Automatic annotation (TrEMBL):
Protein name: Signal transducer and activator of transcription
CDD domains xref list: STAT5_CCD, STAT5_DBD
PANTHER family reported in the protein's UniProt record: SIGNAL TRANSDUCER AND ACTIVATOR OF TRANSCRIPTION (PTHR11801)
Organism field: Cyclopterus lumpus
Domain SH2 residues, every copy: 589-687
Compartment(s) where it occurs, according to its Swiss-Prot or TrEMBL record: Cytoplasm; Nucleus
Family statement drawn from the similarity comment of this UniProt entry: Belongs to the transcription factor STAT family.
Lineage, top ranks: Eukaryota, Metazoa, Chordata, Craniata, Vertebrata
Length: 738
């Protein structure tokens, strides 16, 4: 039977868990109307850890959207009309959400299918899997769920033993009271006449001896029961510790790492629902065992029997408290990080969440969370449990928030919506370190009680590093600091240490991820692009990618030292390319119309073998955030490659790249041989709407064959579409590289 058909028959909590799997990230209506198609795809054939599998995920995403659109088209009637609109909206929504990160769609659907299968299995009490979702992720989830089942059985077993112990102890106390009654009767015989005493005393003595013998045996039995129960609790706590380590030190840390990489443009870190369900199961199991241990201690105090049990129970109580303390403090997390480049006097938001808040009823007395900004040194001292004298490194407005419990989702969280950094206190900088290299962090802290004030916890969590700026001009360098930290930080580091140098391929992964995210494109940096960047970074002329595999790049080379002959760093140049592409060139980059990462000599070599009028688009080497057009044309003396002065954001805010190319009639073919109108015409502004165009060309005082006029060193500003193109350009064909 199809999983979806069975899932719809779930009841109670299982149904609620199933419903919580869906939301804006994946609407339940999509699951319903495409259930057969979804369950028929080989989702487990895609390795989520392998970026090379992205194209498979993209095909599945495209197929899913096509199926939705087909389903929408076949809807008829009044109800069908509304459904058609809704399904069409979902198709657009899913494309917008996952087009940049199709692997996240696969991760999402895998999680949904696996959880549905688990819920169906649990509901039908069947151990046989419903489907074939035994990929590595589902196997890991299955192992975690199997461990929870083992813990459930262990806890049920100790509960049964505890009840048996309590029953036996109650009966022991009754018999003990009986022995005291017999002893009282024997004592009272002294008041009787000798004849009566001799008549009744032997029977009482015999009865007392029998009861005392039974009490001695039963005391040993009770002691054995207590020791056996303590040993079982020890085993349960070992399994609990192991399970908690897997969930907190593996799964939660991986989620936090994904969250950090998402700050560099990596895939979304994914929801916390499954992690919360695991943490809540841990909390429930820990609390049940803690109550059992306390009941066992109560029984021991009620009937003290000499032996090692007192020490064992004290040790168990201490251990279970440590376990629950680790769970509570580790599950106080930042669900939505504050911006990592933080400008003073600017509103920002963040969300903190306690994954076990609902299960431990923390919301019954809603705790308040406070946010403060602290320096790197203060963060180090905090993690060493050294006193920071409640110092902060600045003042945050609206920095207190009460945690709220959301009944529908079962989440306990605090949403800081209107924080603002009023001022910042900077520390003394080291060496060449600039203000945009100084790292701070937002400290979130709270206090709450568990079990009716039985346990009180002080909890703290640190945000990802933030760089504080006071002006937008600092954003570029601050982003470099954040990118380097997010990409190369290691789990468990001392705040906020990162390596000073990394292998070039590692840096390539980081800047490629950032580039795709900023430009919002699936077209990342090719191997040829990365070779070009390596040549720029290392002042090398080698075209062999292997020559750069083992080379390292230091932070100083990345964004402290200027490139040779330039007044900007490698990162500043690269960031300028990203900004220009993101704002003005995205469709052309996605179409493959922009080669971009080509130097002047390479452009000349590529164009000289092509027909006149062939051109290409490359990013300027000499100007941050500039793109130039290089084209080949006849000169009276020889064929030459000409280069326009670079266009920048300022130019494109006046007139688009496509319109500028349209205006230049001497540009005929986009390299290698595509007619320019075939590539760019869909982006042309209709003639009646066209605006004045800016054209700036760098030529010498020479005769330009494409225009038939002498070009001088004056700089042209505008040329109107409705008038013939007039060349008033400046520069020389062999002038410094634009």
């Amino acid at each position: 039977m199809a999983v979806w058909i069975q899932a719809q028959q779930l009841q109670g909590d299982a149904l609620h868990q199933m419903q919580s799997l869906y939301g804006q990230h994946f609407p339940i209506e999509v699951r319903h109307y495409l259930s057969q198609w979804i369950e028929g795809q080989l989702w487990d054939a895609i390795d989520l850890e392998n970026p090379q599998e992205e194209f498979k995920a993209k095909r599945l995403l495209d197929s899913l959207i096509q199926e939705l659109q087909n389903k929408a088209e076949h809807q008829v009637g009044e109800d069908g009309f509304l459904l058609k609109i809704k399904l069409g909206h979902y198709a657009s929504q899913l494309k917008s959400t996952y087009d940049r990160c199709p692997l996240e769609l696969v991760r999402c659907i895998k999680h949904i299918l696996y959880t549905e299968q688990r819920l169906v299995r649990e509901a039908t009490n069947s151990s046989s899997p419903v489907g074939g979702m035994m990929d590595s992720m589902s196997q890991k989830y299955q192992q975690i769920n199997q461990a929870f089942e083992e813990l459930r059985l262990l806890t049920q077993d100790t509960e049964n033993d505890l009840r048996k112990l309590q029953h036996n102890q109650e009966y022991f106390i009754i018999q003990y009271q009986e022995s005291l009654r017999i002893q009282a009767q024997l004592t009272s015989l002294s008041a009787l006449p000798p004849a009566d005493r001799q008549l009744r005393e032997p029977a009482l003595l015999n009865k007392r001896a029998t009861v005392e013998a039974w009490l001695t045996r039963e005391a040993n039995t009770l002691q054995k029961y207590r020791l056996d129960l303590a040993e079982k609790h020890q085993k349960t706590l070992q399994v609990l510790r192991k399970q908690q380590t897997i969930i907190l030190d593996d799964e939660l840390i991986q989620w936090k790492r994904r969250q950090q990489l998402a700050g560099n443009g990596g895939p979304p870190e994914g929801g916390l629902d499954i992690l919360q369900s695991w943490c809540e199961k841990l909390a429930e199991t820990i609390w049940q065992n803690r109550q059992q241990i306390r009941r066992a201690e109560h029984l021991r105090q009620q009937l003290p029997i000499p032996g090692p049990i007192e020490e064992l129970l004290n040790e168990l109580g201490s251990t279970i408290t440590d376990i629950i303390s680790a769970l509570v403090t580790s599950t106080f997390i930042i669900e939505k990080q504050p911006p990592q480049v933080l400008k003073t006097q600017t509103k920002f938001a963040a969300t903190v969440r306690l994954l076990v808040g609902g299960k431990l009823n923390v919301h019954m007395n809603p705790p308040q969370v406070k946010a403060t900004i602290i320096s790197e040194q203060q963060a180090k001292a905090l993690l060493k449990n050294e006193s920071t004298r409640n110092d902060s490194s600045g003042e945050i407005l609206n920095n207190n928030c009460v945690m709220e419990f959301h009944q529908t989702t079962g989440t306990l969280s605090a949403h800081f919506r209107n924080m603002s950094l009023k001022r910042i206190k900077r520390s003394d900088r080291r060496g060449a370190e600039s203000v945009t290299e100084e790292k701070f962090t937002i400290l979130f802290e709270s206090q709450f009680s568990v079990g009716g004030n039985e346990l009180v916890f002080q909890v703290k969590t640190l945000s990802l590093p933030v760089v504080v700026i006071v002006h937008g001009s600092q954003d570029n360098n601050a982003t470099a600091t954040v990118l380097w930290d997010n990409a190369f930080a290691e789990p468990g580091r001392v705040p906020f240490l990162v390596p000073d140098k990394v292998l070039w391929p590692q840096l390539c992964d980081a800047i490629n991820m950032k580039y795709k995210a900023e430009v919002q494109s699936n077209r990342g940096l090719s191997e040829e692009n990365l070779v070009f960047l390596a040549q720029k970074a290392f002042s090398s002329s080698s075209n062999n990618p292997e020559d750069y595999r083992n080379m390292t790049m230091t932070w100083s080379q990345f964004n402290r030292e200027s490139l040779p002959g330039r007044n900007f760093t490698f990162w500043q140049w690269f960031d300028g390319v990203m900004e220009l592409t993101k704002k003005h060139l995205k469709p052309h980059w996605n179409d493959g119309a922009i080669l971009g990462f080509v130097n002047k000599q390479q452009a000349q070599d590529m164009l000289m073998s092509k027909p006149n009028g062939t051109f290409l688009l490359r990013f300027s080497d000499s100007e941050i955030g500039g793109i130039t057009i290089a084209w080949v044309a006849e000169n009276p003396n020889k064929r030459m490659v000409w280069n326009l002065m670079p266009y920048t954001t300022k130019d494109f805010s006046i007139r688009s790249l496509a319109d500028r190319i349209s205006d230049l009639n001497h540009l005929l073919f986009l390299y290698p041989d595509r007619p320019k109108d075939e590539v760019f015409s869909k982006y042309y502004t209709p003639p009646l709407c066209k605006q004045p165009s800016v054209c700036t060309v760098w030529f010498g005082s020479t005769l330009c064959p494409v225009a038939g006029v002498t070009l001088c060193w004056t700089r042209t500003e505008t040329s109107i579409w409705t008038t013939p193109w007039t060349w008033r350009a400046s520069g020389a064909a062999n002038s410094p590289d634009p």
